[in-house]
Each structure stands twice: as C-alpha cells, then as structure tokens.
Amino acid sequence: MNRRTTLEISVFVLLVAAGALARISFRELPNFAPIAAMALFAGYFFRSQLVALLVPLTAMTLSDTVIGGYEWQMMIVVYGMLALPVAFRAVLRKYLRIEQGRVSQSLAAVLGLLCCSVASSLLFFLATNFAWWPWTAMYEHNLAGLLHCYQQGIPFFRYTLAGDLFFAVALFGTYTLAVNLGWIAGLRRIELMPQTAA
Question: What tens digit of pLDDT does each residue of 100-121 get?
Fold first, then answer.
C-alpha cells in the first residue's frame, strides 16, 4: 500500500469519526454540523469522487443511528444535499492549490472556498424546505405556503450557514497548516493532480 493510499484511508476514518461525533455533540444546535464542509474537503482531497461522496454519507448514517431518523423521502433529500458539495471539487482544485503552497497568496482561493461553502448552505436550505413543504400540513400547498415555509426555515438556515462556514474554514485551515508545517510528511511531493473522477 503506497503512502497516498494510507493517507487517504487515515483521513477518511478521521473525517467520518469526527463528523459523526460533532453532529451528535452539536445536535442541540439545529443544522450546525460539519457534514457539508466535510463534503467540500473530501471533494478536494480524495482522488476518487466515489470515496469523497462516502465521507458525508457514512458520517450521516453513523450519527443518525444515535440521533434517529425521519421520513425516508426527506432523508434522501437531506443526504443528497449534504453530499452535493463534493461537486465543487473542480472549483476548489482550480483555486486552492494547497499542496503547492499557493493558497496563502491568493484572495481568489479564500473567496472560492467561502463562495462554495455559502452555495452549499443556500442549496441545502432551498432544497430541503421545498421538499418539506408538500409533506406537512403546517403550510398551505400554494405559493404563499411555500414562501411561509422558507420564512420559517430562516433560523435554521442561520445555523446551517454558520456551521458550514466554521467547519470549512477549520478543515481547510488545518489542512493548509499541516501541509505548510510539514506535519504530513512529504505531502507536497505527493502528486494530487490530476485525480480520477471515480
């Protein structure tokens, strides 16, 4: 087993364990969780897109065994939207060249990460509220009811946005520090690009 594969297995286990534990620990704060940020990081870091997708999905599955599930239709939407940030891998790889030591020199890199994180939060908010609206009797099934559903979801969106931004900065910041300080021995010499799509 080569060094890159060993590193990826270690990071996978660490991300899943930390993500599930953090989601369980912060369950009193609705939607304040590291899962979408982990999906962003996994998309950037792992060579395989399939492995990257398994990170948020596995962390969600493990933590839901403790927290509890809900309607399977909503779980599909939630899981899908929390895995979606993996799709931003091309944008992040274009601007975040952490292994080449360029991230600290580029405002575009920081803005790219923040924009991807905010986009993840916004898409999650829009999709999950749209999916919840027809399933509940809380709102009328017309445009006014949909808008009311989104309005009621704004407090949850604040937690989602705060969690996604906090954990994205923490994950990518820690990784950048680890690379630049040499905590991950020889990582700069490990070829990360190009990486396979699956």
Answer: 665 545 677 788 889 999 999 9
Q: What is the arithmetic mean of pLDDT over 153-176? A: 93
Distance CA 117, CA 36 (A): 8
Which residues have CB under 8 Å from 30's CB, separation 6+?
155, 156, 159
Task: Report the topology of domain 3-189.
Answer: Arp2/3 complex 21 kDa subunit ARPC3 (1.10.1760)
